[in-house]
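User: I'm writing a short report section on ligand binding and want a predicted complex to refer to. Could you take this sequence and zinc ion and write out the structure as tokens? A short remark afterwards would be nice.
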Amino acid sequence: MRAARGSFQIGSFRGIPIRVHFSLLIVLPVLAFLFGGAFRRAAEVAEVPSERLSGSPALWGLAVAVGLFASVFVHELAHTVYALRRGGTVRSITLMMVGGVSELTEAPPRPRDEALMAAVGPLTSILLAVLLGGATWLLQEAGSFNLRFALFYMASLNLFLGVFNLLPAFPMDGGRIVRASLTGRLGAVRATQVASVMGRAFAVLFGVWAVLSLNPFLAIIAVFIFMGAQGEAQQVRMKATLERVPVADLMTPRRVGVGAAASLEETLWELRRERLLLLPVTEGDRPVGQVALEVVRSVPDAERMTRTAREVMQRAVVVRLDEDGWVALRRMAEEEVPQLIVVEPDGTLAGTLDVNDVQRGMTLYQAREERRGQRAPRWRQERPA
Ligand SMILES: [Zn+2]
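Assistant: Sure. The structure tokens for the complex follow:
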């Protein structure tokens, strides 16, 4: 549900779309420019005489930027391969400025697997840094200055990626390891809350540091971490709540939809009367699709009397009354539909469910829980859920 915004696809790996986040696109040219400018000093650090390097500083800058891109890619691929081997399903890989997001449709169920999945990225980066560093050292005597310089910088980038991602700043990898290690004792919700507070504290630190050092990269990273920590804590809380609420308690009940044989004129009248954008289409009392106001409106007036709801309906994504709210919300996101059709276990229409239904239902449920909490004896409130 996250990370897909602000990014576009560049390819795929075993059918998983690989996306690039705009933050990486902004950073690459800036990095190329900055590195080109600091070229002489960079050469000094690598103990390579800059006058003996061929190629312009700008070209080297570009090469380093592409190197960062490749390093982030390898880092992210390590997370993904591990998740796939653990039987997880990865929805997409998004490459961001520092690291990335491997979006899982289902997080590893065991905390140990989550910790290992988080650790495998930074460890791969550090291993790469060691290998590249070793190669730099081996080439000390022989080898061209150009190659040594390039290897040295790739080693540094990977070391930075590995160490930075290990900081316990949730939702970065280190923070995920912390969360996984707390989940056994505190439960998923409390563990995420603790990790999220740590993440936001780190974000504030990075923010202050960014201002003091006038570093725009660090400022962007700080914002990402802050928002990510907050967003994930919210999502985990929502999941914990919704898993306990059946769809029956959230939906808008509805026994009758637009008949599949109804004319579009009748359908339009029905949509307007109900003040709805979408209505289920039924045959007997079973849903067969749903019809959208804008689609009906786009049909010329003259044709509305002769054409039927069946001709313009879209497929219905169905959820059962007794499934839980989290399953429903995930299905909505995965199928990218604004509304689910709710059915009885025997397949007859029972209602509809959209994001507003879920939000309203959750607010009611939480208010009820709070009232119950106030009445309960103290020892009861403090028992973990
Ligand atoms: Zn990572």
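A remark for your report: Residues 377-385 have pLDDT under 50 and may be disordered. Residues 247-372 form a domain with the CBS-domain fold (CATH 3.10.580.10).
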